[in-house]
Design goal:
Glycinamide Ribonucleotide Synthetase, Chain A, domain 4; alpha+beta; 27% strand; Dna Ligase, domain 1; Rossmann fold; 5-stranded parallel beta sheet; 14 helices; 5-stranded antiparallel beta sheet
Length: 437
Amino acid sequence: MNVKSAVSMRILVVGSGGREHAIIWSLSRSSGEHRLYCAPGNPGTVALATNVSIAADHVPDLVEFAISESIDLCVVGPEVPLVMGLADRLRDAGILVVGPSAAAARLEGSKAFSKAFMQRNGIPTAAHRTFQGLEHAEALSYVRQVGAPIVIKASGLAAGKGAVVCMTMAEAEDALSAMMQEHVFGEAASEVVVEEFMEGEEASLFALCDGSDYVLLSPAQDHKRIGEGDTGPNTGGMGAYCPAPVLSEALLESACSSVIEPTLAGMAREGQPYSGILYVGLMLTPDGPKVVEYNCRLGDPETQPVLMLLESDAVELFTAAAAGELKTFDVQVASDSAACVVLASEGYPGSYPKGRRISGVEAAGALPGVEVFQAGTSLTPDGLETSGGRVMAVTARAPELKEALAMCYEAVELISFEGMQYRRDIGRKGLAHLTPA
């Protein structure tokens, strides 16, 4: 496979969320003269790329487009097309891809597979048992034996909402019933993983891999719960910041040696080398970092602040990863901080209305150091409107975390739509780590 000069490339980004808008934004800052496409994209990406009306999970159509448009490099944003084999199909067509094969994407696509993989390879994670969909009685017996708190997870893909932390037995029984009897996650819960509850603070670690070597992007911390103080149901993510002060240099080195490196070695040994983004959700326990879960792509909303701190040319970096040339790539990440606050629709993460008029986006994005990455939006003759649960991620970069957060919230105040909800405590944990006792 020949690598085209990074001076001028035709690049396709797959996806339509804030993550993909941030990827397009990062690629657009490259020093080269590149032609960018986004499938299907959103009203935010259209200012930087050509939107293509192909859904992210329409693998044959995406491959056909990539071939017909002579795409040199494809960056796959969401997990579903990767699990469906999009990267395999594109590589077969001779196109460079940032994203793992379907076999390697099982690290995210099947929690049962990933837990067994970690067990085989001595990678630290929570003690667990896996139950098939018809084994509700057995799972219930096990949960009652272990006791609460405990974690119940749908094994398959559930849009980031398939893990339930149960602090009481009643919550655990309800979660098992919802997954295994009421089938609220459908096929994703055909297998259910029951895990021990791990004490500690979570952090997100991002490694860009080429099958054998890797480089690290800025570690981040996400805010999964809808409510302030980490209350309420899980969401796809309500905000993030990076770097994560909780992840010290010593902990980062420990995570690389005990998780990242044995994961890459294990995948290669088992015949499915991992090339693409390896996103590891870590729990920083008293016994050291342990894996909460793997993801086979960049996180959303972590991508938004993480890429704002990337100083290296994104096209050159992604091309090196896709071409297996990371060994000699010196990735540059700024020493600043970045943060983002997600603006969500009323009712999210449950059902929510659509078509609410949005104002103030241009004013917010005009503030120095601020970018507004769109996600659940649509452009109508009447203007920009809401069309999803997570509508946009207001993101800012500054020398210090406190300043970046203040800039985010200043920009948030300029944006409005009916029923707009957001968390006002994004980054509080990080600030606590930075404040002397």
